[in-house]
Design brief:
The chain starts with a helix and ends in an 8-residue tail after the last strand. Strand 1 and strand 2 form a beta hairpin. It is built from seven helices and 16 strands. The protein has three domains: about 80 residues; about 100 residues, no CATH class; about 200 residues, Sandwich (Jelly Rolls), CATH 2.60.120. The strands form three sheets. Strands 12-11-10-5-14-3-16 form a seven-stranded antiparallel beta sheet. By secondary structure, it is an alpha+beta fold. Helix 1 packs antiparallel against helix 3, helix 4 packs parallel to helix 6 and helix 5 packs antiparallel against helix 6.
Length: about 450
């Protein structure tokens, strides 16, 4: 850049020198009143000292025109060089601005609208869509959840007089106390002019590492209770927005020309509860997705086609939701707590749900089985997830929502602990959704 600018400045200097030389040599001004048109003209030309100016002008009109053309060309060269320098200065300012932004490590803005994103950068340290206060609030909720689970384990320990459980309980209590101290220290740092924000990523990593370890220990302790409960009486908990907490269904879905998907959800996440489930197949990451992201309403995606659902569930209470769909005319229906809340058609009509895909709970897939984005992760609790390859009737869905003895289980996927694997600190523990209705 510096070398090019130096060369351009030399060209400008030469152009200016030539112009001054010509003007200094030809700076004799004359006028003639009648050159055929009766209009006044001013001509700069070189004439002998004793020659008549007008005669000299008539004799040398063509050389004067040539000189004028030369001067105009030089002037054009100067203007072009000036414009080039201005463009290069603008480029330098733009590059300087970009460098400043990079050094400031500013976070990218999320892409507008729905689940589609403009950036391929993935978050690896938790919730990138929230500020420190929101993250601390989530950590506090997680602590309360862990304490409740610890109390359940204490009760289990007393009932079974288990020395090993008591030992693990003491260890877990110590871990929770340490975690509370970290959260308190984080709060104090933020309140004191936020000096701790400089190391926010490092602090968040330590806290999430502790959480993951704590969840794993509690999960190990809860394994001792599995023999005493049915395999379908459990829930999945996703306490934080991350790109590594999820559950994976062990088998794929068959080809389906109709489906009903139902589940129990509880969340108070805002904005948007995230992605309760996503099903991706080779060549299509959005084969079947349920998502509520940002300030958008909850949506069902089939082969990348979208229908907006009239669900309102982020009030911290358990809700039963179902979505039915048939490939004929793409007709769909949406139910919340046993009541139809909306319906429509032309949602991916005559496109069967493809087989041989990957079904993920808690994350939205950008690639087959991966490409998770923390801003679209589900935050909350999920239970009794079932899929049928047909459209359930209104009565069948009502029985599911009211825990009727006539309620059925999914013939494509049914909610069993042996059917899923969990990763990244998502927890699985005893729960019965219908108990919430009593």
């Amino acid at each position: 850049m510096q070398h090019n600018t130096h060369g351009e400045m030399q060209t400008i200097k030469k152009a200016i020198s030539w112009k001054l030389l010509i003007l200094s040599y030809l700076f004799v001004e004359g006028s003639c009143q009648d050159f055929g048109g009766g209009q006044t003209q001013f001509i700069c030309t070189s004439v002998p000292k004793d020659m008549d100016i007008c005669a000299a002008t008539l004799q040398n009109s063509m050389p004067g025109e040539d000189l004028k053309t030369t001067v105009m060309q030089l002037r054009e060269t100067v203007l072009q060089q000036k414009e080039t320098i201005m463009n290069q200065k603008e480029t330098i300012r733009e590059l300087t601005s970009k460098l400043t932004r990079c050094e400031g490590q500013s976070a990218p803005e999320p892409g507008p609208g729905g689940r589609r994103k403009e950036t391929g950068t993935k978050n690896t340290m938790g919730d990138v869509s929230r500020g420190p206060s929101d993250t601390l609030a989530q950590l506090s909720q997680t602590l309360q959840s862990l304490k409740q689970r610890l109390e359940n384990l204490e009760q289990f320990s007393r009932n079974n007089n288990s020395v090993q459980a008591n030992s693990l309980k003491d260890l877990l209590q110590s871990k929770i106390d340490d975690l509370e101290k970290q959260v308190l220290s984080r709060v104090n740092s933020i309140e004191d002019d936020k000096p701790g924000l400089r190391n926010e990523t490092e602090q968040r990593g330590r806290v999430e590492s502790t959480l993951t370890s704590l969840h794993q220990r509690i999960t190990d302790l809860e394994k001792g209770q599995k023999e005493n409960r049915p395999l379908d009486k459990f829930q999945l908990t996703f306490p934080l927005r991350t790109n590594y907490m999820y559950a994976k269904v062990k088998k794929s879905l068959p080809e389906m020309y109709a489906f009903t998907v139902c589940m129990w959800l509880k969340s108070n996440a805002s904005p948007g509860v995230g992605t309760p489930f996503s099903y991706a197949v080779p060549g299509q990451a959005n084969e079947l997705v349920l998502i509520e992201w940002g300030n958008n309403p909850m949506e069902i995606l089939i082969n990348d086609k979208v229908a907006k659902l009239p669900f309102i569930i982020n009030d911290g209470k358990w809700h039963h939701i179902c979505v039915t769909w048939t490939t004929r005319d793409g007709v769909w229906e949406a139910f919340q707590d046993g009541v139809m809340r909306g319906s429509g058609e032309n949602l991916a009509p005559y496109h069967p749900i493809k087989p041989q895909g990957v079904l993920i709970l808690g994350q939205e897939q950008d690639t087959l089985g991966g490409g998770f984005d923390a801003t679209q992760a589900f935050v909350g609790d999920l239970a009794n997830f079932h899929i049928w390859d047909r459209k359930l009737s209104i009565g069948e869905i009502y029985n599911l929502a009211t825990c009727s003895s006539k309620a059925q289980i999914g013939n494509v996927f049914s909610w069993l602990e042996s059917s899923i694997d969990i990763y990244g600190g998502a927890s699985k523990w005893t729960f019965e959704a219908c108990r919430q209705l009593n």
